[in-house]
Amino acid sequence: MVKNFLNNIDIRNENIKVFSELAKIDCEIVRSIHQKEILQISNWWKDLGLAKELKFARDQPLKWHMWSMSVLIDPNLSEQRVELTKPISLVYIIDDIFDLYGTLNDLSIFTEAVNEWDLTAANQLPQSMKISLKALFDITESISTKISEKHGWNPIESLQKSWKKLCNAFLEEAKWFASGKMPKPEEYLRNGIVSSGVHVVLVHMFFLLGQGINKETVDFVDGFPPVISFTATILRLWDDLGTAKDENQDGHDGSYLECYIREHSNVTVARAREHVSHLICDAWKKLNRECLSRSPFSSSFTKACLNVARMIPLMYSYDDSPSLASLKEHMRSLAAHLESTPFL
């Protein structure tokens, strides 16, 4: 932790002492900014009311905001971090609806309503799903309005497209598991890269940053460019290595590992995990190459994509590693002044 490091450096040198004190002040300023953001998110999440309506779903607003804090590290991007946490939370909630709650018929109706972007198409759905759908529409339109007013480009079509892709990918998985027929690992991964939700989050982030928005870059970001797909690949494969043990979920969301072992019955679990680790390593090489190559995107956006990939091993740790313990402690430190804030 930065604070612990600053408290343990040698301050016998006067120059080091001065810089150390300045660094501590800067650290407290940033911490104060993050605490204000957490309070905003906590109040927003409480007012949204989804936690009360969806008892089966995850209720972890602070953890979701950790993604935003880790990806957009500039202290001046406070508003963007708060807004980005909203679609992140919805990705998790909708994922739980598909994995834990909805029947296949309900999920088909839900996806159709998203594809049509029409709430009336969801009249047959359970109340909890209708409320979630309305929250999705309202939040997407609210974010679009804010971006339009600030940057002069209304991203509503792009944001809608990203949610449609996500729900269609979720529905495809639901159909697989309802039929009992698992896809080939390559087919699972193609769909799983979309169902990771990374594209939804990074499309929102692209517009929230507001840099270099034009027809070329918008078309490029809509098309699931490599800098996004490789980041999504890393998250999907890393998450699948743990089979959602971190969330104590009992849903049926499958994994690349499971599909690979079914396809290669003579391969041990250990060898299959080695194969997945190799795929993650390969995706990292490709992502690094993308970040170092010429790109229509701003450096702020590509760095943020890289930060997502960097954060994945920490957010999807499935053991008692020191890094996960440090994350929990940092979250508790930031939220120390808030009551009953869910952590992990």
From TrEMBL:
InterPro entries: Terpene_cyclase-like_1_C, Terpene_synthase-like, Terpene_synthase_metal-bd. The keyword rRNA-binding does not apply. Residues 46-286 form the Terpene synthase metal-binding domain. It comes from the Eukaryota. Its cofactor is Mg(2+). Pfam families: Terpene_synth_C. GO terms for molecular function: magnesium ion binding; terpene synthase activity. Keywords: Lyase, Magnesium, Metal-binding. One of its GO terms (biological process) is terpenoid biosynthetic process. This is Terpene synthase metal-binding domain-containing protein. It comes from Populus tomentosa (Chinese white poplar).
